[in-house]
Amino acid sequence: MFKTLKALAIAGAMALFAAPASANDIKELNVSYVTSPFNLQVIVTKRHELLEKEFAQDNIQINWHKITSGAKQAQAMAAGSLDFGMVMNSSSVLISNAMGNPIQFVAGVSRPSDTFALVSKDESIQSFADLKGKTVAGPKGTVLHQLLVAGLVSEGLTVDDVNFVSMGIPKAQTAMLAGQIDGALLAASSVITSEQQGAHIVATSRGLAVPKLGMTAPTKFVEAHPDIVERVVKVHRDAMAWIEANPEEAIALGAEEAGISIADAKRLAAWADFTTTFSEEDLESLSDDMAFLIANEMMREEIDIKSVFASTALAQSE
């Protein structure tokens, strides 16, 4: 099962260390600060100044940028103003590479299948079958859109059987709660706050689509500065280890940063399925993501899935 991963890891390692660059060549690192859906590792890394401590002796300055959109992080990398996308989704990475902006995953972050959901305030809507002829809103070309399409197919329907409106999560939530639409594709805290206002979860992405979030860097940066990449990934893993050793303190930190209750933070953490690497199954499901993006005209043609993973992002076999 892990033969592919082992081969990728070996090949990636050879590429990474073919022409290593010293940390002395770097004066600053520009990294994104992405807290949603509930990225505890990133919150801990920033709040505990782990990157700052790691690179202090090298006199490397860490610049945090609040860029939450995957597409905007990709644009910043293309412009040379962002070195690490601390959290990006697989769709954004695939689209970026297809558009000639090579980006690689350097570490895993989470597989939050229960975080993404179809939510409705209409009690008559209890399954995807109940959506026929109804209006559903959410962000197009995302795992939420993929969730809707897969859910409809599971009931013998297609997206043409509903009125799908492309809309951002905040607006979709507001429209659903106001009764202007029948269902909304939501994530994380918007799911919880919708429930608190009388809505219910119709379905999550579990079993229908696999959201994959990871840390990224421009491919040229990965190739030019493998030592820096290794150290940033090490910090990411250290943050994960701290979370596992101090779960209550980590939850409290995340709740404070997100402005939510401890109870809600615990729920989001339970949904997150945190990780630091990608598995063989993740690589396989990325092919499904690519097929979905091509079918919905978000990508024009296929790319090599293996090319979007640095060796540091891959789970190693024993």
Automatic annotation (TrEMBL):
Keyword Signal annotated: yes
Residues spanning the membrane: none
Keywords for the protein's UniProt record, in alphabetical order: Signal, Transport
InterPro entries: ABC_SsuA_sub-bd, SsuA/THI5
One annotated GO molecular function: ATPase-coupled transmembrane transporter activity
Residues in the signal sequence: 1-23
Residue intervals of the SsuA/THI5-like domain: 55-250
Coiled coil: none
Localization per Swiss-Prot or TrEMBL: Periplasm
Any single Gene Ontology cellular-component annotation: membrane
Protein name: Aliphatic sulfonate ABC transporter
Native species: Pseudovibrio exalbescens
